[in-house]
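Ligand-bound model needed. cobalamin.
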Amino acid sequence: MRGQRDLAGRLSAALAPHGLIPRGGFAFAPDEDAPVDAFGASARGVILIGHGGAAHWRHFCDWRSAQPPDLADPLDTWSRTVIGAVAAQLGARAVFPSERPYMPFQQWAMRAEGLRPSPLGVLMHPVFGLWHAYRGALLFDDLAAEHLQASIQPAAEPIHHCDRCVGKPCLKSCPVNAYSADGFDYPGCRVHVRGVDGAACRERGCLDRNACPQGIAYRYPDDMQAFHMAAFVGGGSG
Ligand code: B12
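Prediction:
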């Protein structure tokens, strides 16, 4: 058990210099359709890697300043570089949210961290509010993940702030009501953000997301929000 705790400590220590954290994990059930490796063997467990707030942002920006200015998908490339190296160090296989076929990151996150979606769909975190995301995951082919799960899993079901939120300001700030009972109107959002009236969304991010009163201390800075919004309206995500 001590060895497994060491592994959890090594994972946190390896991620910390990049502003990343382990976001929880779990072991797949024996009869579950778990991701397979190149030889067809099913993973035994998964640990999600991500950030709360913008802790990774300056590390990413420093790295990016040394890259060619026209580097495609720089955040994905940075994530593959950093998390790939950590995976190699720990004997795990790394997978990434924007890699196809898409891995079910949100389903994994709900299971690993006990989170639930906000009315916007973005998962509500008890501390970070809507200001968090996943940059990769480590798949383990041995039992280490089961022990890691015990050491980094939240002790209890977290508070879901949206249950107590009466005013729901997140559903009242979008100029084109992109979020409704019918779900998220991606085409409508995109047309607005790209248009003449979309400057506020382009420069400071989604107005609905910014209206949420939770986790304000972790709200992404404007340059980070602008970066993600540009990727989002340009066809990327995450
Ligand atoms: C494709 C995609 C999109 C597409 C939507 C496609 C669709 N609905 O079918 C578009 C471009 C519209 C999109 C938008 C956004 N996305 Co998106 N998206 C993805 C991506 C790459 C794949 C989703 C998928 O098909 N997964 C495979 C299925 C099997 O797994 P699943 O867990 O059941 O996935 C379902 C949900 O993820 C849902 N979905 C997709 N995007 C989003 C976003 C939110 C907020 C919610 C609730 C659901 C959702 O669609 C999936 C199929 O039903 C995931 C990363 C990933 N690998 O999951 C990010 C991801 C889900 N997106 C994310 C984010 C943050 C966003 C945006 C806020 C944009 C941004 N970068 O700031 C917006 C929010 C819009 C919204 N409310 O839906 C985050 C969510 C993190 C969180 N804190 O909850 C993820 C996990 C990426 C990441 N790096 O962390 N996204």
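The mean pLDDT is 90.
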